Amino acid sequence: MIQTTTPNVEGRTISAYLGIVHGEVIIGADIFKDLFAAVRDIVGGRSGAYEKSLDEARRQALAELQGEAAELGADAVIGIDLDYEVIGQNGSMLMVTCSGTAVKLA
Fold this sequence. Notes:
By secondary structure, this protein is of the alpha+beta class. The protein is about 35% helix and about 40% strand. The radius of gyration is 17 Å and the shape is elongated.
């Protein structure tokens, strides 16, 4: 299934708009990742553990979005918007959401 942030699919005609679809994932940051991230903040560098968690959460949210679009019989999801938000007590969780419009292509 085509997934794009653009409002159309280049070279393809949209024949039907099937509705808004979405995906949400909330992940908790565990204490070991927090500890290693704190060390990285002090000595510099990237936090691979957090980057891996963010990547996995984004992939899961997009998979949920695609699954919802497939249930509607969509060929593509256009106008996808990804958002990241820290939530929970002391920012202990990360929420990744995505939404877009499921469409049929001619």
